[in-house]
Amino acid sequence: MSDENVNFIHFHQQTARISQNFRASKPLLDRKRARDLENSPDQLSSRDGIRCKLEAQVTESKRIPLMEISVNTPSPCSRTGNKLIQSEYSSISDDSSYIHRTESNRENSDERKVFVSINNKHVSDPFVTLIKQPECASLSDYFSTPSLLDDDFDESMLEEIDAICEQQSAAKAERQDPIVSLDVGSSRNDISTDDFIATSDILSLSHDVRALDNGDVLDPKEFDITIALSTSCESMPEEYSKYIQSLNDKQREAACSDISIPLMIVAGPGSGKTSTMVGRVLMLLNEGISPSNILAMTFTTSAALEMRERIGAVAGKKKAKELTISTFHSFSLQLCRSHAEKLERTAEFLIYGHGQQRRAIIEAVRLLENEKNCDAHKTEGNFNGRRNPEDFKDKSKKWQKFVTKAKASGKTPAECCKMGDEMGAAILGNYNDILISCNALDYHDLISCSLKLLTDFPEVFKECQDSWKAIIVDEFQDTSAMQYGLLRILASHNRITIVGDDDQKTFILLQSIFSFNGADSSGFDSFRKDFPNHKEIRLVRNYRSTRCIVEAASCLIQNNVNRCQSKNFLSENSHGSKIILKECYNQDAQCAYVIDKILENATDGTVASSSYGNIAILYRRQVSGKLFQTSFRHRKIPFNVHSVAFYRKKVVRAIIAMLKTALPACDDDPYRKVFKALLPFEKEEKKGVIDYVDKISTIRKCSFISAASDIFNAKISGTFKRFYLAMSS
Ligand SMILES: Nc1ncnc2c1ncn2[C@@H]1O[C@H](COP(=O)(O)OP(=O)(O)OP(=O)(O)O)[C@@H](O)[C@H]1O
């Protein structure tokens, strides 16, 4: 039997094991089969859609900017249908007018390949950046594939929406004040935009800046560095040079240090990390690295947007657009989609969020139980029909933590087995099989699969090395062990800059993640060990806060264990008013005290900043916020709330779910959410009704909404309900 046939049978065995009750697999497999058949009859001509999709290898893929890929949307190169691809992506060269897909059979093989070609020419370089047309980045894109979205995906989708909104408001602000961003760099040292900075000017300016920064006498070694850095600025375009000169000595040293030496910038809040990273990117560009070969990793989409905007203000929007500034997950998503076939997935694979992951774990436990009780329950079909999935829910609770932890650390079933945890190995194995069968990856898989691609496939490693010639990582302290592993491989060329605050790392979390892997408890330590020739620079001057705040924070941070004791923060800002520590008996007393203080400040005409708009209240829990809001209304104090992001508010989520139900091919989840929002019952009762509708829809093998409408239209008889519900419980 050929390997292919063995795989085929194995795949079918896996799929057959998965219960019809596993909601994630049932609707996804059915729905995707139908959709894809419709769009691409050749690709999925057999009933076993997934099997055929796995065969269809995307042999030549195109890179699109990472920021523009939404999480559960298939990559453009893998989308079916010419129309979609044509409308979404503009041509690469001026004369090429469209991109289209062709399919051809391999010689002596029935294996089908999908090529992406431009103007009928197959593109040999899989890392050419496609330019997405601006109108495509509209909200409608994010709603255009409702059936591919799982409920937990909402989080990432909402983040993307937030990012678009931020982008739009930033663009609007820019339109209103086109020179605003240019002012940032030049205003710092009062350099007129007309001035061209000659070398001698730079030296004196550097000297001034030094004096201004800390007032210390420079050690001669540092003075040499300043001269060297100033010389390196000499060859820069004027705008770059001006920007670099606006940085303080340490920031400038970091930005301009040799790009072939790994660089670690350890910096506290408000010390100009972003400003320095912008300087570093300018330096890389000046050294001849193309913007499309620079990869900057940030932890949030808003940080990515800010960095792009700040680079764009100096280097020009065109260059800034070409940079790849991405989160770890969107970077990995793109890599996995481009090489999905190597991961036994198709490029359209789904991302499972927490909810789907939980359901898959329940199913993994059920499979194990099923195998154990094989004799007692002769056929799987009977078993599936009679057992209540709720039984497994309880049993699986303890396994959820285990699987999440194992996945977060990239542990394999074989490794669990080696450690003597056979049950854990079996459940992890089942879980992984389920994800393969459902053509899905979870969030942890995105990172571990990228790591696998880079380590097991030399061609992928080479592609990445050719593509990402320099790497910059923001918020390095938040990098997990697996993400760090990914970075270490990507940065085999040593052109890596990491920026982070070692005081900000959350020890408990980080230590558990790192130690799970048997690695160091700190990413910084790992970096020092893995890049022994690295250079380390500390930024200690805080530009954001008053001296009083910086000193108080420093005192507190001194208590952190394992911290670098030589790191003392400075602030040249004014001392500012003293911090008052007030203990209150309860929340009401606290609220009353705060209101008194606000009224006292806001009505004090002697203080220049006395106005309600200059006062902020930070609170830890939503519930405390409510109390403030009620009291402010009562006392007629005007206020704004910046708490839960707009799109994460319950009411907004409910409205989005309602809108989704109006789209064709809407799946069950939006309906569930709408029911949850609209049913006039208490939480438990709502859950009861939704579970009831779910049961009926499972028994009748129909959609949630059709079961619900039958129930509410009383089309389901009492006898039917009682009989089948008794069977399923
Ligand atoms: N060398 C400098 N001279 C004057 N102002 C500076 C300098 N470096 C940074 N700043 C100012 O300090 C503020 C914080 O800078 P930036 O956002 O780069 O710091 P950060 O460390 O990234 O901040 P955060 O900790 O909030 O991420 C900004 O207003 C910036 O303009």
Automatic annotation (TrEMBL):
Gene3D superfamilies in UniProt: 1.10.10.160, P-loop containing nucleotide triphosphate hydrolases (3.40.50.300), PCRA, domain 4 (1.10.486.10)
GO biological process: one example: recombinational repair
Keywords of the record: ATP-binding, Helicase, Hydrolase, Isomerase, Nucleotide-binding
GO cellular component: nucleus
Enzyme Commission no: 5.6.2.4
Sequence similarity: Belongs to the helicase family. UvrD subfamily.
Enzymatic class: isomerase
GO molecular function, a single term: DNA binding
Keyword set includes ATP-binding: yes
The organism's place on the tree of life at top rank: Eukaryota
Cited PANTHER family: DNA 3'-5' HELICASE (PTHR11070:SF61), UVRD / RECB / PCRA DNA HELICASE FAMILY MEMBER (PTHR11070)
Protein name (record): DNA 3'-5' helicase
Binding site for ATP: A267, G268, P269, G270, S271, G272, K273, T274
